[in-house]
# Entry
Amino acid sequence: IVSSVVNNRLWQPFRSILQELNSYNVDARYQPTFYKTSIAEFNDLQASIMSMAKRNHLHYESQKEFIQNSAHELKTPLAIIQQNLDNLI
# Structure
């Protein structure tokens, strides 16, 4: 019983990290939040995950902007082609 209680308490930070990762969504502005623990390895893991989440969100935003810009740039040539086809018909 004592071992079970100690293990549950010891692994609680890890479970909270997993819970935050399961609820993380790259397209949301929400960043995962973690709580400081007395275990240095869990704090390092949390810092790495925060850094990764920030980088992923920045990459996602730049990719999203590129796709929007390219879609906008493609509309003009497609409209010209469609107009020329309509004229040919």
